[in-house]
Every structure is written in C-alpha cells, then in structure tokens.
Amino acid sequence: MSRLDEAAFAALHARTAGALRAYVYRVVGNAADADDIVQEAFLRMLRGDVPVDSEEHLRRYLYRVASNLVVDRWRRRRHEQAEHLMPEQFSAPPHYENDASVAKIFAELKPRDRALLWLAYVEGESHEEIAASLGVGRRGVRVMLFRARRRLRDLLQARGIPVNS
Amino acid sequence: MTEWFDLNDAEDRALAEFMSRVANLHVPDRGSPIATASDLYCKAALIARWEAERRALRPIDVMQPIEIAGGLFAAGLLLYWSLPHLFL
Hints:
Chain A is mainly alpha-helical. Chain A has 7 helices and no strands. By secondary structure, chain B is mainly α. Chain B contains 2 helices and no strands. The chains are: A mainly alpha, B mainly alpha. Chain A binds chain B through residues 1-2, 6, 9-10, 13-14, 17, 21-22, 25-26, 31-32, 34-35, 39, 42-43, 46-47, 96, 99, 102-103, 105-106, 117-118, 120-122, 124-127, 130, 142, 145-146, 149-150, 152-153, 156, 161-165, and chain B through 1-8, 10-11, 14-16, 18-23, 25-31, 34-38, 40-41, 43-45, 47-48, 51.
C-alpha cells in the first residue's frame, strides 16, 4: 500500500480526479473508458507504493499512468476499429461555432497529440513536466508538441478557421 | 510554462483560444455511479491483501505438484523393488 493514509488520499482524489477525468475523457472520447482509466490510475498509485514527496509528484504520476493506459487502450482498439477513437457524439458542422464541433475537431487529432496539447495548453505544463507525465524524453516532447500544434493548426485551417489573422 | 519555438503570435493565440474552448467543454457523466475515494482506497486495500495472500501461498502452489510427482515416483520405485518378492 502507499504511504498515503485514507484522509490524505481522499483530499488528493478530490483535488485531482475532476481534472484528470476531463483530460482522459478529452483524449479517449468516451466517458465510460475515461472513468475506468481514472479509477485504474488511482488504484495503481495506491498499490504502487509511490513515495509521497509532494502532491505535484503524485499528480504527475497519475497523469503518466493515465496516459499510458490511454495509449494501451488506443492500441487495442486500433486493431478492432478504424484508425483512432472518435467521441461518442455528433455530426458537426465544418466550423467551430458550437461545442460539438470544437470536440469533433479535437477528436480528429491522434490521442497522443490530444494528450500533448491538453497538458501544454490546459494544464500549462512545461516540456519537462509533459515528458514526466507522458513518460517520454524532453527532446521528444519538443518535437511531438511541434507536430501536434502544426496538425491542429492545419486542421483549423482546413475548417476555414483563420489562424493567421 | 511551455516554450514555443515554431508558430507566430497569431497562430499561437488561435490555438490557445481553441484549446481554452476544448478545456471548457462539458464532460458527460457515465450514467452509473463512479467509485468514490473511499471505495478506491478499500479496493486497493483488498487487492493488496489478496496479493499478499497469493505471495504467501505461492510456495505451497509450487511445491504441491512436486510433492505429488515425488510421491508417485517413490510409490513406483517401491512397487518396482517389491515386484520380485510379490510373486515368490
């Protein structure tokens, strides 16, 4: 068991579960899968005897485990279905006037790109932090993030959304 | 904060604006109850206990077939040695 006692775990869960679930949901595009992954990430943290250096360390550990689980699931599904996971919803218009079309555009990116963009823009993480969260090298993050941003920019441009004005 | 090195300011603003809309999208509920922190803590404790039991029982699990095989071998050997005397 982790050295976290139940009260400390409950406090950590209360502070991180919502954001972690939003991140995983946006990357996998499925609420049931997101809940399973979040639950599994917390269980692994408790069972893994992760040293409780700081809440930030634990939070990063959770994001790393969740990201790995997302990638595992994505690889499994890729064999079963088409190229990448699409959210449960919508047939969206080509522009992004509403939430459904924003979600649709984001879902067109690969899961790894979604994870990178979320961690960089929404969580505001540095390259080092993203590398730690995703378990990849810092230099790799720079390149992957560059490509992810370029792909998102191209996608927005393809939808006729001005990104240069 | 992440350092950017490739996009111009307008592109960066557009991506940041798009990502802030993504961040504010509604995340739907699953429809069924989600495990609470207390549920997860109990589940982790149960799994840890179950794994400890498995670890404790592993030597028994490993030794059991060896013991059976050894017993059968000894019985066979005994039978082999005693065969000539059985039909005297």
